[in-house]
Structure formats: C-alpha cells, structure tokens
Amino acid sequence: MYVKSAAMRSGGSGDESTQSGMAFRTLMRPAYPNPFNPQTTIEFSLKSEGPMSLAVYNIRGELVRRLLAQTMSAGAHEVVWYGRDQNDASVASGVYFARFVAGPISMTQRLVLVQ
C-alpha cells in the first residue's frame, strides 16, 4: 500500500474548504484503473483534519485489508491498493468494495480485480 497527498480537482459546492487556493470537499473519487491488475489508486479529499478510515471488503462483507485508519490532514490524498490482504497475500480475482469513512461522510465503491 502506498499513501501520498496529491493535488486534485475541486468538485461542486457544499462541504468545501480552501487550502493553497484549492477548495476541497470530503469525498472519495472513483478508483483508477478499475477493473485493475495488479493495482488501483483510490483518491479522496478531506475538508478538514480529522479521523478517517479506508478499507477493502470482499463480497461477503469480510475485511480484506485496512488501508488507512488514522487522523489525516485536510486536503487531497491517494492510496494505492496492490490487491493484497492483511497478511500481504495476493487476493483472488473478483469484486471487492472500498469503504471510506470520515466523520459523518461514508462512501463505498466497487473494485474489480482481474488476473
């Protein structure tokens, strides 16, 4: 897993904040590429600093890998998931779900791993 802050586009109105001249909303953007092999990038932004989590689940709702569970700064960030579970073993081809939670905001998106 790889985590970094990134410059991202601002989108829409509502839950926005300004950092270095850019407006941010608390949200998760679509992962890319998707379908993916061997890795996918998940971008998200936070309006303000605070606790957040990002995890991947299988179709049965079981935790596959917790990517982040920490306090993050306001702004844009990205995480790369390499298709590995908590034990760092490669997972099988199939459908997975990325779940993003930051304060009252929670979002889920489908990820498809093809091998």
Q: How is this structure best described in words?
A:
This protein has 115 residues and is mainly β. The chain has one domain: Immunoglobulin-like. The protein contains no helices and ten strands. The strands form three sheets. The protein has a four-stranded antiparallel beta sheet with strand order 1-8-5-4, with no helix packed on it. A four-stranded antiparallel beta sheet has the order 7-6-9-10, with no helix packed on it. Strand 6 and strand 7 form a beta hairpin. It is globular. About 11% of the residues have low confidence.
List the defining traits of the structure above.
four-stranded antiparallel sheet; 57% strand; 115 residues; mainly beta
